[in-house]
Amino acid sequence: MTDTRPTILTGLIGAGIGASLSPPLHEREAELNGLRLAYRLMDLNTLGLAVSETPALLASARRQGFTGVNITHPCKQVVLDQLDDLSPEAELIGAVNTVTFTGGRSVGHNTDWHGFDTNLETGLPGAARGRVILLGAGGAGAAVAYAMLRTGTEKLVVIDLDRCRTDDLVRRMADIFGADRIVGAGLDRLKATLGCVDGLIHATPVGMAAHPGLPFPTRWLRPRVWVADLVYAPLRTRLLTEAAAVGCRTVSGGGMLVHQAAEAFRLFTGVTPEVGRMIEHFTALTSGVAVQARTPDPVAG
User: Fold this and answer.
1) d(CA 263, CA 92)
2) Domain region containing 81
3) I need a surface site. Which of 33, 195, 273, 285 has the fewest CB within 10 A?
């Protein structure tokens, strides 16, 4: 019989996203909720488009009748000026990973911060959040900084190879939460800083399939420091494996991917998904499979 259900058209805009797990996560959850949803990948690399052409791609999706799209690296901040409105969180964070087209208006949201906070809470229950290092100050790092400071971190130390990006993030968060709670530092300070923090959050591309290696020597770690990696492909990065060998508690980026996707799904469809079921699906998709994700952003793909 012909399926007469209307199709909810959604997708993902980014670079190198060919192996994204977002399509199966969204489409299967939609089907189990009695919805017909199509999730399309709009890969800048495949389309031969420059990052500067992202606004045109977003406008095209809107004209084609998309309900909304997810946004990943390197577009999370590029689209900010192209939207009619921003959610309060997206405006504060300064990065968008979800756009909805509603009532003729485009609205930017950020579900990354919620995804990270939920993943940390469930993956490392009881983890101290007083003093934390954030390694990486891009779009995903900005969402993490917001999440940590919103949930009580007393001192967040931001380190990025691009000092201008570090300073920009520190200024943005200091305006919201106070200059005494966030500070920027150079990579040369990482070893010394690791000796006096509760945890470290890794929000750079290092460790992904296309960017193998370690972001820093893991011999600098101590067992009392927990480590959260935003990378989800591979699920157990070299950083997490070696941190666990040192004795650190660890959590991967898989849970963050699922939780941010679940919130995006709700925004797209108006239906609250069963997150536990989405986690089970993610586990099935990644069990025994080397997911060759190539997106240089550790989340939203």
Assistant:
1) 18
2) 7-111+255-286
3) 195
pLDDT below 50 — which residues of the chain? 289-298, 300-301
The pLDDT tens digits for 78-134 are: 999 999 999 999 999 999 999 999 988 999 999 999 999 999 999 999 999 999 999
Residue 172 lies in a domain: yes
CATH code of 65's domain:
3.40.50.10860
The CA-based diameter of the chain, rounded to the nearest angstrom, is: 66
> Rounded CA gap, 262 and 259, in Å?
5
Total domain count, the chain: 2
CA–CA gap between residue 18 and residue 185 (Å, rounded): 34
Q: List C-alpha distances in Å: 201 to 129, 132, 160, 190, 231.
A: 11, 8, 12, 12, 11
In order of 20, 33, 113, 220, 240, the CA distances from 227 in angstroms are: 24, 35, 17, 12, 7
155 in active site: no
The token duo for 245 is 């060998």
Is 0.70 topped by the overall pTM? yes
